[in-house]
């Protein structure tokens, strides 16, 4: 029997597959599309996702196909300078198109031994206490111990399992695509600048090689979400909004998105789990969607692996929903606020002007930037009056032996011990014990989960043993 079936070979699904393979889990990825999509919906990795890539030894590959950017806030059309004091050793994002991210993660998962089966559409799901059975459109049936739906906002897995998806339907729609322009660059820039004085849901971005990414508000909300976007519709809306269609031609791909905002009421139903857009949809304001999905996978991967491999302590897999559902809800709320700021009515314009002035305060800019980049995420570990690091991810720090993230490529827990007096011997198969010191870490020792979040700070061996058992199961005999 397969250990885990992952449905969806996008960035979320491939990150999850790679995380599972780090722990020897037999994983099969099922993807409905016969070939990867050329669509570039997600256009970058925020600071927290950059950290994840570094933790798994993928950062150099990312840097080879992307460029760094530093924009503070990035909230509802308000962009400010990068603020001082963001707690990360990677104070930047990466302008990395989604196909490049997906390709890199796919290669990573394949190198680790994941199996990808394309052209496989899931049409049925059933489960019992022993496993999950998936039925494909061609009649094939596959069985696994667990199933994870990473199959997007219209997730077949979510619907087949009957997980609720409450929220708000679309009120506005935006057309998105890549194409060539006949108009000269100076005229394009001038028109875009003029239109964006009042319409921030409009833009044209030069992607090189004569290809441009074009974003323009649609005339209304399409009732049939499966209806294809037409090039003629694109040209009509460009003329309606900008007064010209810029001589657009040779479209590479066309799509549309809305401000629909929904979240699964549970991320787990028995042996079936959800991650990425299958668990939450929201407007792309702030560029958070792809990042949120990758971070879901990073949280889930080690917990599901521990469950499959038999050492997960009670409640570990359920902590996936407990930790990630509030994070997703927070993203939905901030995108709701951003869509209000992007409005064209007088009240929205006045609100945006006020918010822009507030963002000039460094503390406000730092708060918003931390929220958008997810470096401020802190999980509730149930610790009262605990250390300020508890629940937060540990930033990369310089050690005498190298950098911390360089020690985390295997996806194991890590005890960073500056005292040299502690022991995690009973968990050596799950936790690396590193005795080293860092001038950047103001704590005698920290215990990190495989996703880099801190679950213990101190120097008491008894407390350490209790925490190891809580997060990494019983000690080996």
Automatic annotation (TrEMBL):
<keyword id="KW-0503">Monooxygenase</keyword>
<dbReference type="InterPro" id="IPR050641">
    <property type="entry name" value="RIFMO-like"/>
</dbReference>
<keyword id="KW-0560">Oxidoreductase</keyword>
<protein>
    <submittedName>
        <fullName>Rifampin monooxygenase</fullName>
    </submittedName>
</protein>
<dbReference type="Pfam" id="PF01494">
    <property type="entry name" value="FAD_binding_3"/>
</dbReference>
<dbReference type="InterPro" id="IPR002938">
    <property type="entry name" value="FAD-bd"/>
</dbReference>
<dbReference type="GO" id="GO:0016709">
    <property type="term" value="F:oxidoreductase activity, acting on paired donors, with incorporation or reduction of molecular oxygen, NAD(P)H as one donor, and incorporation of one atom of oxygen"/>
</dbReference>
<keyword id="KW-0285">Flavoprotein</keyword>
<dbReference type="InterPro" id="IPR036188">
    <property type="entry name" value="FAD/NAD-bd_sf"/>
</dbReference>
<feature type="domain" description="FAD-binding">
    <location>
        <begin position="2"/>
        <end position="335"/>
    </location>
</feature>
<dbReference type="Pfam" id="PF21274">
    <property type="entry name" value="Rng_hyd_C"/>
</dbReference>
<keyword id="KW-0274">FAD</keyword>
<dbReference type="GO" id="GO:0071949">
    <property type="term" value="F:FAD binding"/>
</dbReference>
């Amino acid at each position: 029997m397969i250990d885990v079936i992952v449905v969806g070979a996008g960035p979320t699904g491939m990150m999850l597959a790679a995380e599972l393979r780090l722990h020897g889990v037999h994983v099969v990825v099922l993807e409905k599309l016969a070939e990867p999509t050329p669509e570039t919906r997600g256009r970058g990795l925020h600071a927290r996702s950059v950290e994840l890539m570094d933790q798994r030894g993928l950062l150099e590959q990312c840097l080879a196909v992307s460029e760094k950017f530093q924009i503070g806030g990035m909230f509802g059309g308000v962009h400010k300078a990068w603020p001082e004091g963001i707690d990360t050793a990677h104070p930047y994002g990466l302008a990395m198109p989604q196909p490049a991210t997906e390709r890199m993660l796919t290669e990573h998962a394949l190198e680790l031994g994941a199996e990808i089966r394309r052209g496989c559409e899931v049409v049925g799901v059933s489960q019992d206490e022993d496993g999950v059975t998936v039925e494909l459109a061609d009649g094939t049936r596959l069985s696994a111990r667990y199933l994870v739906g990473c199959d997007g906002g219209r997730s077949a897995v979510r619907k087949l399992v009957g997980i609720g998806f409450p929220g708000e339907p679309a009120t506005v729609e935006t057309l998105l695509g890549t194409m060539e322009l006949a108009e000269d660059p100076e005229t394009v820039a001038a028109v875009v600048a003029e239109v964006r004085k009042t319409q921030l849901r409009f833009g044209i971005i030069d992607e090189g090689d004569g290809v441009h990414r074009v974003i323009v508000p649609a005339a209304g909300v399409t009732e049939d979400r499966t209806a294809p976007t037409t090039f003629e519709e694109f040209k009509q809306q460009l003329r309606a909004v900008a007064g010209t269609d810029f001589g657009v031609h040779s479209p590479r791909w066309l799509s549309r998105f809305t401000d629909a905002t929904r979240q699964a009421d549970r991320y787990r139903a028995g042996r079936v789990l959800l991650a990425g857009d299958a668990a939450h949809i929201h407007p792309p304001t702030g560029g958070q969607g792809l990042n949120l999905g990758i971070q879901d996978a990073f949280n889930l991967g080690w917990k599901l692996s521990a469950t499959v491999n038999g050492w997960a302590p009670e409640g570990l897999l359920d902590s996936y929903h407990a930790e990630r559902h509030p994070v997703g809800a927070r993203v939905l709320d901030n995108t709701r606020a951003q869509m209000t700021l992007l409005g064209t009515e007088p009240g929205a314009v006045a609100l945006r002007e006020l918010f822009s002035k507030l963002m000039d305060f460094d503390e406000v800019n730092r708060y918003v930037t931390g929220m958008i980049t997810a470096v401020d995420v802190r999980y509730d570990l149930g610790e009262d009056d605990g250390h300020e690091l508890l629940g937060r991810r540990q930033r990369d720090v310089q050690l005498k032996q190298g950098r911390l993230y360089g020690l985390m490529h295997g996806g194991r827990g890590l005890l960073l011990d500056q005292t040299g007096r502690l022991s995690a011997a009973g968990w050596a198969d799950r936790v690396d014990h590193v005795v080293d010191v860092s001038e950047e870490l103001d704590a005698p020792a920290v215990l990190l989960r495989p996703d880099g979040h801190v679950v213990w700070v101190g120097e008491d061996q008894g407390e350490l043993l209790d925490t190891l058992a809580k997060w990494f199961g019983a000690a080996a005999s």
